[in-house]
Amino acid sequence: MNLTTLCYIERDNKYLMLHRISKKNDINKDKWIGVGGHFEDRESPEECLLREVREETGLTLTRYRFRGIVTFLADNFETEYMCLYTGDEFCGNVAPCDEGKLEWIEKDKLFSLNLWEGDRIFLRLLIDNAPFFSLKLRYEGDSLKEAVLNGEKILPAKAVKTD
Predict the structure, then answer these.
(1) Which of 4, 20, 49, 162 could form a disulfide with 28 if both were Cys (CB 3.0 to 4.6 A apart)?
(2) Do residues 57 and 122 lie in contact, with contact meaning Cβ atoms separated by under 8 Å?
(3) What does pLDDT average to over the chain?
(4) What is the pLDDT of residue 157?
(5) SS3 string of the chain?
């Protein structure tokens, strides 16, 4: 089982995004994502979140919210359970990241970036300030084949009768 955190740090109606361009053999190669990573032994989700944000950005989060759980299923990878957070207060300065380039992106420009299709769903939920949610995303290769939000299938779209 794969346990991870992902955080979208907010400032001035922008999110700090990581353009994953540095690592070879990176499943997120050339994608824009938030910051986060894998749990270490005996870590709570919050401890993982704070450590990963500090390691990847140089920032220390001082206020954050647990926003949802995302379950990723993919044909070639182990199931991943991701704890999704937003943070809006921090101290320190953004430092270079060895996994890619960090950049503050205006929220209204996020959807023009090279994002995973499933990320577009949960970013919209974050931006719309949705209550805590559970999102299941099933990929085949790079294609999102199914999305289930709080137990209700949202993709592929439900069949609609046309009489």
Answers:
(1) 20
(2) no
(3) 93
(4) 61
(5) CEEEEEEEEEECCEEEEEECCCCCCCCCCCCEECEEEECCCCCCHHHHHHHHHHHHHCCEEEEEEEEEEEEEEECCEEEEEEEEEEEEEEECCCCCECCEEEEEEEHHHHHHCCCCHHHHHHHHHHHCCCCCEEEEEEEECCEEEEEEECCEEEECCCCCCCC
Domain boundaries, the chain: 2-155
At 84, the amino acid letter reads L
Per-residue pLDDT tens over the stretch 118-129: 999 999 999 999
Give this prediction's pTM.
0.92
